[in-house]
Amino acid sequence: MIDIHNHIFPNIDDGSKSKEMSIEMLKNAYKQGITDVVNTVHYQHPMFQDIDLSFDSIYKVSQDLQNEINQIGINIKIHIASEVFYYDNLLKIKNNKLTTMGNGKYMLIEFHPNNIPVSQKEVLYNLKIEGVTPIIAHPERYRQVQKDINYVYDWLNSGCLIQIDAGSLIGLLGENCMKTSRLIIQENLCQILASDAHNNAKRNFCLKDGHIYTKSILGDKADLLVYHYPKVIIEGGNISL
Ligand SMILES: [Fe+2]
Hints:
The protein has 241 residues and is α/β, with parallel strands linked by helices. It has ten helices and seven strands. A seven-stranded parallel beta sheet has the order 1-2-3-4-5-6-7, sandwiched between helices. The chain is globular, with a radius of gyration of 16 Å. Bound molecules: fe (ii) ion (FE2). Fe (ii) ion (FE2) binds next to loops.
């Protein structure tokens, strides 16, 4: 499996707190059958203003961690990207090496849980026109989506992809997230399951359990969400739904 959304790098954002924790998390990921992870540092998130977002420093952290896990036989490839907090500046930052994945073709975008601004429709449309496909991070966690699933249909109709947190499906993020994420799976509106792992406790990798749930609803189509689509994304290929 390939996990395109997590915070495994130590002491960068609100993710892993130490190199030891990162290694523990990756051991767990490896046991679940994860072969590739994309660390998605919080980019321009209002809560994390002091992060060093230079590509070179993030790349160095990635190399260090990759070397560590190679030495102890954890056979996972680490990639770099961001979880970009939504502002209407997305077109201006799309050429930053850190803000996209798959050779600049995909951008993982999160909203504030209580605020999906009206401007997002036009901004995401323009981003898509410019060749960057928006991936909406964990829509099940946004209050407005919990009330109105049509947000998800609108995003899909405008060419965005939908990523659900595996933990939402198995109840780790509360009742509302579980209900909404399960509805999105049942309606077959999700292309990517990801762990959004932050630590080695409650918010660890749980992609396997999320996949098992998804398989119980969608059968073999569930494999698309953890193998096929994430692979196409990190390789910078095209996805047509
Ligand atoms: Fe995240």
